[in-house]
Automatic annotation (TrEMBL), chain A:
PANTHER family linked to this entry: AMINO-ACID ABC TRANSPORTER PERMEASE PROTEIN YHDX-RELATED (PTHR30614:SF37), MEMBRANE COMPONENT OF AMINO ACID ABC TRANSPORTER (PTHR30614)
Any one Pfam family match given in the protein's UniProt record, by short name: BPD_transp_1
GO aspect biological process, one term: amino acid transport
Protein name: Amino acid ABC transporter permease
UniProtKB/TrEMBL annotation, chain B:
Protein name stated in the entry: Amino acid ABC transporter substrate-binding protein
GO BP terms: amino acid transport
Positions of transmembrane segments: none
Stretch forming the signal peptide: 1-24
Source species of the chain: Vreelandella alkaliphila
Annotated keywords: Signal, Transport
Length: 396, 341
């Protein structure tokens, strides 16, 4: 908004309510004060009513003993842990399924999105069928489908499907061998990190050399070999300092190894596959937004096909893809709260479910849960905005 | 004190005035009378305790408490609005005034009685937590359950007792937590868990819902005390008394042999206890703001505690739960009501 130039003679100041700028400022201050007063009133009203009804308030409950068990925990947890700990366990479980879901949805989404544009008729139709099926069925139903229709039909623990006698699949989940690292293993992650640093240096050097001389090395292939080959070499050289803890049937269940519970599998599959169908469409629209002339121009410069994609099409397509992709990531993370429908111990199930009920402190628990989702979403948005700014067209 | 500050702030802002939000609630009794129905919170479907029958009418031991309150207050046992609540919603629904009585197999514990702003009015069923297992497992005692996967309903005392029991006995378990009892049964049937745990009365109710009830058995071990009873909001003593004495009237009715069938004849009874109970001698409803025939309405329309028990969960019902500790005090049980005088 522009402010009208003050045409009055100096020395004759109008009263402040006639000054547009001052008036705007006063109105804004009044609005802020009103909003603040309203919020304070709400908080006070809640506190007054809670104390009038004899309902305990405050966050003291977080240090009380929780007393219930949780089936999947990424950190040490027992029934003797505190409610604060259950919050962390739930949060980590939410982040786990959200993070892996984003990863899988992105990979599937990009593959399907590109396949949708494939000149191969069958591939394009299959991708189309995938998108139209999974995009149009409600997510909750898909979660139920994976949980009740697919995973519930697996055999019981005693007649598990065995893969090479080390991996077992049954109605209780997927049982994988767990690597136990012996002394001397520390060398391998060290070489891995070293290889990554070397690869970054190589790529930067290669880029400069390319700009200066026009010559280029296949830097990405070399980095790939470095990052995976070098640690492997060290692994063999040190005599493979890993033993495997193989799951075995003892009593009711398999013990040992890593257990992936079916609730996690169902939720992860449903979230990834559902969100991937949206991402595929976003990827397709991104690629189609780049005019065909760009590709032809790049080909006219005799760039090979993979470089046309990498240097011309994808960098421009990303600009179209990233903003809607952010929304899909946010949706996926928020949708993970449907976990409670099938009993996956995420934040909503463990904290806003069991903890809320055991302590009865609904307002505190719900406020914390909402704050967590808000924080996660804002962080994801911040990161994606930063990434978007990086790939955005630089106008000169 | 906080409120005053805010009012000052509000006035200075000159913006909004929201009045009356914080004022205390009117009496539950007068609200109920003007509404013409009791708002009663029940379960999301637990046969024997609260579940709709084939015609959509709610039936059960817990439902009879709602009906008794309605009969006492309004003279009509059918004047009840049933609100189905799951374990997680139930206390919030009562605190916020969505329901006025929560009669939903709820265990009386210290935390619930003292920190939630609620009051338990008594015990209408003495229960304990047990385990149901598939007969294929060949297990006969809870001490053999080390390492089992256990299906359980979220937000119950059961969740806590289970963790305590396994820790005390040095055993491990995987809790598989579901929202509703229906889902826990589904998990148990699909083999997701070896064991289903809940109050033994609920297990009996859930067992008859299985596709093959004979394939499952309830272990004899009872690992906890679960006194189940109706709950009301704290701070309305009149309503607290009404709900409390509605249950006591049913118990006293059984003790004195007043049933739904003979209630009318009993009005002529010479027995002074019965005369006081049925309002023929004195008006014992007055102190609660009720009519003198409050208990007569309960007993003639709902029946006494023994009738309700046999009809809903006892030997006359599919659940076939024995009276056991729920028998009257003079018949070897715990059920004991203070005298009406």
């Amino acid at each position: 908004m522009s402010v009208r130039p003050n045409t009055r003679p100096a020395g004759h100041k109008p009263p402040f309510w006639r000054d547009r700028a001052k008036r705007a400022l006063i109105f804004q201050l009044l609005l802020v004060a009103a909003v603040a007063a309203f919020l304070l009133y709400i908080v006070g009203n809640v506190q007054d009513n809670l104390s009038a009804r004899g309902i305990t308030t405050g966050f003291g409950f977080l240090s009380n003993t929780a007393g219930f068990g949780i089936v999947q925990s990424l950190i040490d947890y027992s029934s003797q842990s505190t409610y604060g700990r259950t919050f962390l366990v739930g949060l980590l479980n939410t982040l786990l399924v959200g993070g892996l879901g984003v990863l899988a949805a992105t990979i599937i989404g990009f593959i399907v999105g590109i396949a949708r544009l494939s000149p191969n008729w069958l591939l394009a139709r299959l991708a189309n069928a995938y998108i139209e099926t999974f995009r149009n069925i409600p997510l909750l139903l898909q979660i139920f489908f994976w949980y009740y229709a697919v995973l519930r039909t697996l055999p019981s623990a005693r007649d598990s499907l065995a893969f090479g006698e080390v991996i077992f699949l049954n109605v209780r989940g997927l049982y994988l061998p767990e690597p136990l690292f012996e002394s001397g293993f520390g060398l391998i992650p060290a070489t891995f990190i070293l290889a990554i640093i070397a690869s970054i240096a190589l790529v930067i050097w290669n880029k400069r050399r390319h700009e200066a001389t026009g010559k280029r090395l296949p830097a990405y292939w070399i980095s790939f070999a470095l990052i995976f080959g070098l640690p492997l070499l060290v692994l063999v050289a040190t005599g493979v300092p890993i033993t495997w803890d193989i799951p075995e049937l003892r009593g009711f269940n398999f013990r040992g190894g890593i257990t992936i519970i079916p609730e996690f599998l169902a939720l992860w599959l449903a979230l990834s596959i559902y969100t991937a169908s949206f991402i595929a469409e976003i990827v397709r629209s991104g690629i189609q937004a780049i005019s065909h002339g760009q590709t032809e121009a790049a080909q006219a410069l005799s760039l090979p096909r993979n470089l046309v994609l990498r240097l011309v099409v994808i960098p421009q397509a990303l600009r179209v893809i990233i903003p809607p992709l952010t929304s899909q990531y946010l949706n996926l993370i928020k949708n993970s709260s449907l976990a409670t429908a099938i009993g996956y111990p995420d934040l909503v199930s463990v904290f806003a479910g069991t903890t809320l009920n055991q302590t009865g402190q609904a307002i505190e628990v719900i406020a914390m849960t909402m704050a967590v989702y808000l924080t996660i979403s804002l962080l994801v948005s911040m990161f994606m905005n930063w990434f978007n700014a990086r790939v955005a067209l630089v106008e000169r | 004190m906080l409120n005053k500050k805010h009012l000052v702030l509000l006035a200075s802002a000159g913006a909004i005035t929201i009045a009356g939000v914080a004022t205390a609630q009117a009496s539950t009794l007068s609200d109920t009378l003007s509404r013409g129905a009791v708002q009663c919170g029940v379960s999301d479907g637990l046969p024997g305790f609260s579940a709709p029958d084939d015609d959509g009418n709610w039936q059960g031991l817990d439902v009879d408490v709602c009906r008794a309150v309605a009969a006492a207050v309004l003279g009509d046992a059918d004047a009840v609005n049933y609100i189905s609540l799951n374990a997680v919603e139930r206390f919030t629904a009562l605190q916020s005034g969505e329901v006025d009585v929560l009669s939903r197999n709820t265990t009386w514990t210290t935390t619930r009685d003292t920190t939630l702003g609620l009051n338990f009015t008594g015990v209408n069923f003495y229960d304990g937590q047990g385990f149901m297992v598939s007969t294929d497992l060949g297990i006969s005692s809870a001490s053999e359950l080390d390492g089992a996967a256990i299906c359980i309903q979220s937000g119950t005392t059961t969740e806590l007792n289970l963790a305590d029991y396994f820790r005390a006995n040095g055993m491990e378990f995987d809790p598989i937590v579901f929202d509703t009892s229906e889902q826990t049964v589904g998990g148990f049937q699909a083999g997701r868990c070896d064991v289903l745990t809940s109050d033994t009365s609920q297990l009996a109710a859930l067992r008859i819902q299985l596709d093959d009830p004979s394939g499952a058995m309830i272990l004899p071990d009872v690992i906890s005390k679960e006194p189940l009873g109706p709950v009301v909001r704290q701070g309305d003593d009149q309503w607290f008394n009404i709900v409390k004495w509605s249950l006591f009237a049913m118990l006293n009715g059984e003790e004195y042999g007043v049933t739904s069938e003979n209630a009318e004849e009993m009005l002529e009874s010479e027995n002074p206890d019965i005369a006081r109970l049925l309002g023929q001698d004195g008006n014992y409803g007055e102190g609660m703001g009720l009519e003198a025939d409050w208990a007569y309405n309960i007993l003639s329309q709902v029946g006494n505690y023994g009738e309700s028990f046999e009809r809903n969960v006892g030997m006359d019902s599919p659940l076939e739960i024995e009276r056991g500790v729920n028998a009257l005090w003079n018949q070897g049980g715990f059920q004991y009501a203070p005298p009406i005088r």
